[in-house]
């Protein structure tokens, strides 16, 4: 639920920043006062940042330990905390566990497919000889990323339309499938129905990330491997993938572990979380708890966000570990 | 010739990718030019037999009660407002971080950048409360201030750009009697133009396409951006019910109008994206 859209920015290496931060911290006592104009120049930016980004970080954390309800003023207040009550309630919340399950299932499909798809397309584009053609493919692959998500989802809605949509007309008339799925109203198909557009709108970003990595691999490595008799597949496994590991890491950080597909679920379906709430992922459940059902229990939703955050971190750490052990 | 033949499977595979990426856009575009009889065929065709502009007329006619022009205007207003705020705030701060010496400069800069990595637990809820407290919720001004406040990335890009401006130029101007403000506005900003374009595009596109933040901050339908409004106006429910099935074509016209600015900005500036990526990853 970060305000920052993950798709907007590549995440730089954190270590190097931490290092510069540390040296800056050490230097401060030796620095001279300098030009007061500097403070004047940075003031608007610092104020804007602290008010709209800095404060919500702290406020959100406090909220995660309170029973803050938007429609019940008595529950509000900066330090009206309720300790661990929210977390005890979460343990008894069946909907929470159900949405946890849905999220895990969705992530199990989404993350591997996203990696394979974006890496696959990147590998293909990297092989295109003509620079103009390669740039055409890059531009096209990135188009779904820049489109407004909600509009894209509306367009997908129409493609899924059981009567007038393209998909079912294609399945019926071309592939002769008599009874094509009712994508958006059949609980059995709702995961697939979200998965396809979600991959569609996400893969281009990671393709570009992978391409930057691929373009930076020294061609001599492949020539040397070819001389030693390595075939394409061996080159991929032993040269390309190991050298792309930093980018794969970056992809995993950027996707942030568990995938909730909040915006696709909220916009694609006519019903709040899909037919029979079959796509009630953690993110969607949190969003609904805070903004659309009951008393708007923002405190409870914030604790959910905290739990999701912790699990996402554990999840990412686990994948890192797997990646590392695989290489040895 | 043999070389050419060997590239065929590769390009074929990539053409499938192109098809999948562009198909939803194409489908909307074609549907937006179709008349009613053509739209509601049991096997809709991929091409238009009798193109019509009726759907666009419906969507764009203010007198006919269409609110799409209003939503487009709202989106434009918020997008340009956010870009303007970011331009002023970020370029000044980035210049100070790049060129003016003052105590704690680097510490403040790296703190601002590192804050980007702090997870925001309940950030949306906290922002909701904050905006309400500041009387900025349900206003365009609130969003115009909120979107550029994620300054970390643009600050990084702009600082890098100002560092790349030749020092001699600025020193020469100083000798000629220019003060810091004049050097900043007359030399540094024009020299850093391209980076300013990059951060402006990123912010404009993010603002135009945002769903979740705008959706939670705005209640009043007349304030909606096109990205929000489009999820509300679509005639999906009436369509499946089989009555008054008239909005399918105009919905598509609305989608196309909501996308055109984005596609234009993107196509005109796409070379910055790849460059932005490379700088983002390699230089940082």
Keywords:
heterodimer, A: 328 residues, mainly alpha, MetI-like fold, B: 284 residues, 15 helices, 0% strand
Task: Give an account of the 3D structure.
The complex is a heterodimer of chains A (328) and B (284). By secondary structure, chain A is mostly helical. Chain A has one domain: Orthogonal Bundle (MetI-like fold). Chain A has 14 helices and no strands. In chain A, 41% of the residues are buried. The longest helix of chain B is centred in the last third of the chain and has 37 residues, at 247-283. Chain B starts with a helix and ends with a helix. The radius of gyration of chain B is 24 Å and the shape is globular. Chain B has a domain at 67-233: MetI-like fold. The model of chain B is unreliable at 236-244 (pLDDT under 50). Chain B is mainly α. Classes of the chains: A mainly alpha (328), B mainly alpha (284). Chains A and B meet through helix 1, helix 2, helix 4, helix 5 and helix 6 of A and helix 1, helix 4, helix 5, helix 6 and helix 8 of B.
Compose a concise summary of this entry:
The complex is a heterodimer of chains A (328) and B (284). Chain A is mainly α and 328 residues long. Chain A is built from 14 helices and no strands.
């Amino acid at each position: 639920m970060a305000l920052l859209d993950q798709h907007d920015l590549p995440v730089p290496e954190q270590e190097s920043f931490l290092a510069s931060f540390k040296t800056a911290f050490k230097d401060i006592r030796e620095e001279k006062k300098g030009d007061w104009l500097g403070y004047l120049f940075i003031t608007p930016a610092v104020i804007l940042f602290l008010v709209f980004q800095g404060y919500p970080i702290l406020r959100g954390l406090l909220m995660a330990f309170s029973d803050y309800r938007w429609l019940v003023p008595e529950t509000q207040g900066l330090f009206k905390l309720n300790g661990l009550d929210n977390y005890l309630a979460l343990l008894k919340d069946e909907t929470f566990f159900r949405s946890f399950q849905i999220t895990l299932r969705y992530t199990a499909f989404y993350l591997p497919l996203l990696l394979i798809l974006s890496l696959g397309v990147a590998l293909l584009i990297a092989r295109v000889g003509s620079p103009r053609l390669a740039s055409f493919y890059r531009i096209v692959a990135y188009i779904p990323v820049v489109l407004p998500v909600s509009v894209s989802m509306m367009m997908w809605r129409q493609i899924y339309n059981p009567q007038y949509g393209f998909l079912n007309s294609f399945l019926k008339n071309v592939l002769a499938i008599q009874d094509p799925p009712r994508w958006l109203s059949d609980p059995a198909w709702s995961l697939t129905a979200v998965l396809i557009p979600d991959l569609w709108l996400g893969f281009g970003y990671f393709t570009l990330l992978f391409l930057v990595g691929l373009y930076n691999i020294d061609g001599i490595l492949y020539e040397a491997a070819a001389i030693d008799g390595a075939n394409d597949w061996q080159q991929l496994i032993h040269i390309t993938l190991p050298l792309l590991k930093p980018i794969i890491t970056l992809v995993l950080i950027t996707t942030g572990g568990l995938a909730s597909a909040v915006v696709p679920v909220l916009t694609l379906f006519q019903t709040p979380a899909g037919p029979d709430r079959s796509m009630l992922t953690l993110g969607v459940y949190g969003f609904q708890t805070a903004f659309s059902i009951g008393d708007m229990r923002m405190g409870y939703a914030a604790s959910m966000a905290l739990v999701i955050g912790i699990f996402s971190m554990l999840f990412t750490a686990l994948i890192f570990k797997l990646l590392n052990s695989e290489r040895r | 010739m043999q070389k050419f033949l060997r590239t065929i499977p590769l390009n074929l595979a990539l053409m499938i990718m192109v098809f999948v990426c562009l198909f939803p856009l194409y489908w909307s575009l074609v549907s937006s030019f179709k008349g009613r009889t053509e739209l509601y065929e049991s096997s809709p065709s991929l091409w238009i037999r009798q193109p019509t502009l009726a759907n666009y007329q419906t969507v764009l006619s203010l007198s006919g009660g269409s609110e799409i022009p209003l939503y487009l205007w709202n989106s434009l207003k918020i997008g340009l407002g956010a870009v303007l705020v970011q331009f002023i705030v970020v370029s000044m701060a980035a210049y100070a971080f790049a060129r003016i010496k003052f105590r704690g400069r680097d510490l403040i800069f790296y703190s601002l950048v590192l804050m980007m990595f702090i997870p925001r637990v309940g950030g949306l809820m906290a922002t909701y409360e904050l905006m309400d407290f500041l009387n900025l919720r349900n206003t365009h001004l609130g969003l115009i201030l909120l979107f550029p406040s994620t300054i970390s990335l643009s600050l990084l890009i702009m600082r890098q750009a100002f560092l790349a401006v030749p020092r001699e130029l600025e020193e020469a101007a100083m000798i000629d009697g220019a003060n810091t403000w004049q050097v900043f506005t007359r030399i540094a900003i024009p020299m850093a133009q391209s980076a300013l374009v990059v951060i402006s595009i990123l912010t404009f596109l993010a603002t135009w396409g945002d769903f979740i933040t705008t959706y939670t901050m705005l209640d009043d339908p007349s304030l909606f951006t096109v990205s929000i409004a489009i999820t509300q106006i679509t005639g999906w429910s009436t369509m499946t019910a089989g009555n008054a099935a008239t909005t399918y074509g105009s919905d598509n016209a609305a989608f196309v109008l909501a996308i055109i600015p984005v596609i234009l900005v993107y196509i005109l500036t796409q070379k910055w994206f790849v460059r932005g990526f490379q700088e983002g990853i390699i230089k940082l």
